[in-house]
Design goal:
alpha/beta; Isopropylmalate Dehydrogenase; ten-stranded mixed sheet; 11 helices; NAD binding
């Protein structure tokens, strides 16, 4: 490293629960080592969220955590358990709404050396992150009858379409499909399509298409190579992004980003897996690749490249992989292998 003054980035760190603290610690070790080699320093502001935070402070999202994100404008988050069918609201969804992180961005790309049924996949899922059924407007009309309200607005639909097309233009992606169910939900999904069509007119170099959501799921399984970038509303994006993760090896490998105009939070898209917590067997790849997205967001491409190259080398060599990808290594050993690969790249 040169004698130049290190670039310092304050980052809000939310380790999460279950396997969250383990994979987060592994990723922080790698980030700090890569940063040391490239002149980047991280000032971590560490906070609990969810049930752990409530037990300690009486809040699921402590005020201090919110203040930290407002200040740093960037967060790195491990998985946080969300109760099913009751309990507190999803921490992920709440943070996205609170900070208007309207674009959920998930690149789906094979890791070299890892054999899957679909080699060479290179997809981008862009999901509207603030409305749709995820607004959580539901109530019991009478016992046994629950009503949920789906909200689609022209503002949010236009905003996410513009984000998707701008990303595609910058990254020289060739086409975008808007995914919908407008054959049935003619007003709500029809409005989403109307906005996407209007936005597409400003990007003539990008081929625009539309597919119905159920057909899209079938087409992805039959031939994912026909797609490039897919933009869709909230619930469809949640489902399709997990489906696409399966094409390249599962949720343990795929990064995620939630981006707004004033803040961004980068997170692993998998769950907290409490059944394997504390056993040193979790795969930190998803959170590590999310951290790479964070570095690119911070315009620290050299640090991002250093980590991504080392990670891919570990997968190509296939000597120190975790159990979910047919290896025998633990979380710490996997992180050590990435660190060694970075050291060897000097």
């Amino acid at each position: 490293m040169s004698e130049a003054v290190a670039r310092i980035h304050a980052v809000t760190l939310i380790p999460g629960d279950g396997i969250g603290p383990e994979v987060t610690d592994a990723v922080v070790r790698i980030l700090e080592a890569a940063g040391k080699a490239t002149g980047v320093t991280f000032a971590w502001e560490r906070f609990a969220a969810g049930a752990e935070a409530f037990a300690k402070q009486g809040e699921y999202i402590p005020h201090e955590l919110s203040e930290s994100i407002e200040r740093t404008r960037v967060g790195l988050k491990g998985p946080v358990t969300t109760p099913i069918g009751g309990g507190f609201a999803s921490i992920n969804v709440t943070l996205r709404k609170q900070f208007e992180l309207y674009a959920n961005f998930r690149p789906i790309k094979n890791l070299p050396g890892l054999e899957t049924k679909y080699p060479g996949v290179d997809l981008v899922i862009v999901r509207e992150n603030t409305e749709g059924l995820y607004v959580g407007l539901e109530h019991e009309v009478v016992p046994g009858v629950v009503e949920s309200i789906k909200v689609i607005t022209a503002k949010a639909s236009t905003r996410i379409a513009k984000w998707a097309f701008e990303y595609a233009r910058k990254q020289k992606r060739r086409k975008i499909h808007a995914i919908h169910k407008a054959n049935i939900m003619k007003l709500s999904d029809g409005l989403f399509l109307k906005c996407a069509r209007e936005v597409s007119k400003s990007y003539p170099e990008i081929t625009y298409g539309e597919h119905i959501i159920d057909n899209t799921c079938m087409q992805l399984v039959m031939n994912p190579y026909q797609y490039d970038t897919l933009v869709m509303e909230n619930l469809y994006g949640d489902i399709v992004s997990d489906l696409c993760s399966g094409l390249i090896g599962g949720l343990g490998l795929v990064p995620g980003a939630n981006i707004g105009d004033h803040a961004a939070i980068f997170e692993a898209v998998h769950g907290s897996a409490p059944d394997i917590a504390g056993k040193d067997i979790a795969n930190p790849t998803a959170l590590l690749q999310s951290a790479v997205l964070m570095l690119r967001h911070l315009e620290e491409d050299a640090t991002a490249d250093r980590i991504q190259t080392a990670l891919e080398k570990v997968y190509v060599e296939a000597k120190t992989l975790t159990r979910d990808v047919h290896g025998t290594a633990g979380t710490k050993a996997f992180a050590d292998a990435v660190l060694a690969a970075m050291e060897g790249a000097k």
